Amino acid sequence: MVSAVFHSPIEAMPPASKSAPLAAPKPAQEPAPVVAKVVQRTPRDFSGLWLRVLPPVLGIALLVLVWELVAMKSTTGFPTPLATWQQAVQVFSDPFYSKGPNDQGVGWNVLSSLRRVALGFGLAAAVGIPAGFAIGRFEFLSRMFNPLISLLRPVSPLAWLPIGLLVFKGANPAAIWTIFICSIWPMIINTAVGVQRVPSDYMNVARVLNLSEWKIFTKILFPAVLPYMLTGVRLAVGTAWLVIVAAEMLTGGVGIGFWVWDEWNNLNVANIIIAIFVIGIVGLVLEFALIKVATAFTFEEVKS
Description:
Blueprint: H1 9-12, H2 15-19, H3 47-73, H4 81-92, H5 106-137, H6 139-152, H7 161-168, H8 171-196, H9 200-208, H10 213-251, H11 256-265, H12 269-296, H13 300-303
Helix pairs in contact: 4-12, 5-6, 5-8, 5-10, 5-11, 7-8, 8-10, 10-11, 10-12, 11-12
């Protein structure tokens, strides 16, 4: 006979739980106070700004000071900076007036000079850049044309102006010819040097793959030579803008160089100084634009 034995729940609990008092319920925790985050701003360093702004301002101030001293000591009526500024305000108040072929505003003169530079420079680029690729690519052509380039490159650009007047029978094409002949040499030389500096491993791979000359030009030479070519273009534009002023002073017509010469004949020195600043500003803008273009297409190792 099996008898069932029943135990009370209290007896079934472990000994330690019998004597332990009941745990009191934990009070609800108060929310932690919200602390606003303080963003610490780093102080701006204006030393770089001062280095960029202060030296140019001091340089311009020094130029104006020397200019003022020269005007004070001059006995020939050399214009002061203030008088030149007042004349510049009058000149640029209507830069595009036209009162005949020999009396036009400074705006038309600058545009005429830029048009001549663009035509001569464009022709030089169309001839000089392909010639540079060919001379740099083929040793036979390099040996053939290097003596001619070494002979003709040091010649002053204005020495070519009488040849242009004789051949083209006109002042405007002669000025364009002078721009062409002075702009072509930097593009030929820089492009040829860029082709010759292409790593030989690239050309060996092209020879192994039996690439055509067109593939070698488009896939290997042109991307590698582009920084050198743009450097030649930048140097050529600067030279062309320098030469056009002298060429227009000799050939006449509408242009910034002719404007300088015409103002000298009128003994208007203030307008000559204004023209000098205009020539410098336009040349600076052309140089800055081409530097930006060359930097955008230049590889890091070439930049360094």
